[in-house]
């Protein structure tokens, strides 16, 4: 034990172990099976000191003394700081607000337990409201406190079961300011993208939120700019995620314009190059294939994909190579291209697509992917005798895990 605590049953456990037990939905003491009247975990200082003394006595055997654990922050302490921060934000007291942020950051740095407690006490919503309050003035004037608020919001959003979307919506314009500003630090841009992603995923009215974001005139330039001129791997992944989510959620005319702008910016070629260069980055490849699939819903997107000699060979190669999601996207794109252009079918046959699609059906896949693979096989069948070619190396080391 490194942090012994006692339950209401009188039995002591290590804090991490018993917290895991309770979070799993258990309401009894593991030893006595007694129903717990309280879930309070009382630090057992006597047992902890006994363990520390034993460690000191056995230092010569390589035993290290366990550190004295910090007492987890309480809900009352968190509530008090949040109330103070809320009051400071209403007064636009930048100094007091930053003091509260530093206090919460210090608590969060002490342990994962503290971070979860802070997030579960509604801190993300309070910080987002404060962000909105300070952002009502000139963003440049309040850039320092806004950036600190944004930094805290980013990790709180990810730990609060996507509960900050409503409050983050009001902060959209300041978030975009950080993305556009050349003076913003990389961390500020990354945190802004995280907040925008949470805004999309958290809202119960995703289509409306996506629509409001798509109405931003130069959004495609901002996101594609992060892809074309990479700042950091995290920002690249976040940009791909945002583009994919926007294309997936919205089906309006704004979405069509956004899609058209990305195609005109030659995103298709960039995606193909990204898939090639990120062969060891599964999540990046999946997102790139997912965006390519969405772009191919548009005739301009299909034309751009068909016009690139890398498209079909690369898609066939990625089937059963990366993940189930990547396979589904690859099959979908081949199906969309094949329906409109026989050249894609012929080219697919020449690089072994027929055998790959048969394997997809044999190994199992989703119902929609099964239908698309079957339809593609039927479209390819008339050309098999004349154009089919099999690349045996693609199947040599195939494993059932796919």
From TrEMBL:
| Enzyme class label | transferase
Is Lyase tagged as a keyword?
Answer: no
Give an example GO biological process.
protein ubiquitination
Give the pathway annotation.
Protein modification; protein ubiquitination
Q: Which InterPro entries match?
A: ARM-like (IPR011989), ARM-type_fold (IPR016024), ARM_PUB (IPR058678), PUB22/23/24-like (IPR045185), Ubox_domain (IPR003613), Znf_RING/FYVE/PHD (IPR013083)
Q: Which residues form a coiled coil?
A: none
EC number assigned by the record? 2.3.2.27
Sum up the protein's function in the record's words: Functions as an E3 ubiquitin ligase.
Q: Does the keyword Transferase apply?
A: yes
Q: Where is the U-box domain?
A: 1-61
Instruction: Report the GO molecular function annotations.
Output: ubiquitin protein ligase activity
Record lineage = Eukaryota, Viridiplantae, Streptophyta, Embryophyta, Tracheophyta
What's in the keyword line of the UniProt record?
Transferase, Ubl conjugation pathway
Name by which UniProt lists this protein: U-box domain-containing protein
- Which positions carry the signal peptide feature in this UniProt record? none
